[in-house]
Design brief:
single chain; 462 residues; alpha/beta; Protein-Tyrosine Phosphatase, Chain A; Severin; six-stranded mixed sheet; four-stranded parallel sheet; 15 helices; disordered N terminus
Length: 462
């Protein structure tokens, strides 16, 4: 993902928000195979199950009578192999002919733990790991998604967005992007997407997050009454521990800072990137990139200022008392709280609730965490990707024995990445084999990318 700062687009005008009843939204997991409630627009009238008006927030004037007559499962089946512009489910994601016919050059896969990157030798993939649950955090990854879509636009490409059925996860990301890009309200954008794909319906949690997104991307420049926003960099998913995203804190205060991490503090006319003494450079770099995203997509006015633990200027601490925190208490942080935090010994700040995230990041940086694994039923030389590690478990035909051999191929990009010299590939592969129920005592031989020919020669005998 590109971390470059972008120039802001034309300012967007603030738009009104209309809250929706919880009963009007489908349940979690609605975009998985099985029973699925009749799709309704957020503001649709419940009379007869048909929308009564095409005005924003009051329903749609779309003829879906043919869909309603097919039943719930038939609705999914009807759209299952339909490529709704650039939005669909897994059935189309695995159909190369349909993707080629629609001019697809890039793919955003929202369900990496379910759907593999089917055509990664031909298309450019970006994979996320989203659960279709109201508690899933999509807010923290929206600006990464916007960056990806903008990169594709600049390259003159066309992106295909998919989840399992193209109902909730993928449609939510497309709605969010169009809200920002086209300067439209949630209601209007939802209607537009649903007109293209009749089964589109974000789950309740996603809808609430999209309404909050509307307030952030359509807000006028921050006013003196604006609240304090604070984010900490953390993995979005255990499946991609080095995809670090800014997670908004419910109770922002100096007491939430941790010496192991990087934080973004957003106040009136200023945005600070606070870097702890024990923060890894990978996290610091991503925090700076995330700050640029906030500037671009929320039209923040003012400079990004990097402050390091133990060297904070007084204006940084004063910023916490100048605005209200973004919390339910709506109470200003006291001077005593700020003084106490500012006098903490540098390097000693630890928040126990962050421990699991930091452990996940550190293991990933040192090669101790395996990313997602995709099983290859067939193998060709084109599958050797410089950004991948491949494990081959095979019989030892050279010695005509039933004993299996394990070959590990490490791509050049992986080999040259940070801290890779500290990775014991023998040990890591043994751990992987154990988790897969195979003997971790099998013979293991590691090949680097420049040794590819040696590996291929052995595989020809296997």
């Amino acid at each position: 993902m590109s971390s470059k700062a972008r120039s802001c687009l034309q300012s967007l005008q603030p738009l009104a928000i209309t809250r929706r009843s919880l009963d009007e939204w489908p349940k979690a997991d609605s975009d998985k195979v099985g029973e699925w409630p009749n799709p309704t627009t957020p503001g649709a009238s419940k009379a007869g199950g048909r929308p009564s008006s095409a005005r924003p927030g009051e329903g749609l004037r779309l003829d879906h009578s043919s869909l309603r007559s097919q039943g719930r499962k038939d609705q999914i089946a009807f759209f299952d192999k339909e490529c709704s512009k650039v939005l669909c489910g897994d059935a189309v994601a695995k159909n190369r002919d349909i993707l080629r016919k629609n001019g697809i050059t890039h793919v955003l896969n929202c369900v990496g733990f379910v759907c593999p990157e089917y055509f990664k030798s031909d298309l450019v993939y970006r994979t996320l790991w989203l659960q279709d649950s109201p508690t899933e955090d999509i807010t923290s990854i929206l600006y990464d998604v916007f960056d990806y879509f903008e990169d594709v636009r600049e390259q003159g490409g066309r992106v295909f967005v998919h989840c399992c059925q193209g109902v909730s996860r993928s449609t939510s990301l497309v709605i969010a992007y169009l809200m920002w890009r086209e300067g439209q309200s949630f209601d209007d954008t939802f209607q537009f997407v649903k007109a293209a794909r009749g089964i589109a319906n974000p789950n309740m949690g996603f809808a609430c997050q999209l309404l909050q997104c509307q307030k952030r991307v359509h807000a006028i420049p921050l006013s003196p009454n604006s609240v304090l926003r604070m984010y900490r960099m953390a993995p979005h998913s255990q499946y991609a521990p080095l995809h670090l995203v800014p997670k908004m804190l419910n109770d922002p205060s100096p007491a939430a800072l941790d010496s192991r991490g990087a934080f973004i503090v957003h106040v009136l006319l200023s945005i600070y990137v606070w870097v702890g003494m024990k923060c890894d450079p990978v996290m610091e770099k991503d925090a700076k990139a995330a700050a640029f995203q906030v500037v671009r997509y929320e039209k923040v006015q003012g400079h990004i200022k990097v402050v390091r633990e133990g060297l904070e200027p007084q204006e940084f601490w004063d910023a916490f008392s100048s605005t209200l925190p973004n919390s339910d208490t709506n109470t200003k942080i006291s001077k005593d709280q700020i003084d106490s935090a500012s006098k903490s010994n540098p390097g000693s700040r630890i928040i126990e609730s962050y421990d699991a995230d930091f452990e996940l990041v550190y293991k990933a940086i040192t090669g101790g965490v395996w990313p997602s694994m995709e099983k290859l039923t067939t193998f060709a030389r084109k599958d050797l990707d410089s950004n991948s590690v491949l494990i081959f478990v095979t019989s030892n035909a050279i010695r005509r024995e039933a004993v299996k051999m394990v070959y590990v191929w490490v791509g050049g990009e992986i080999e040259s990445s940070k801290s890779v010299n500290a990775v014991d590939w023998q040990q890591v592969t043994g751990d992987f084999l154990h988790r897969k129920g195979l003997s971790d005592a099998l013979p293991i031989k590691v090949f680097k990318e420049h040794e590819t020919e040696n590996l291929l020669e052995l595989l020809n005998f296997s």
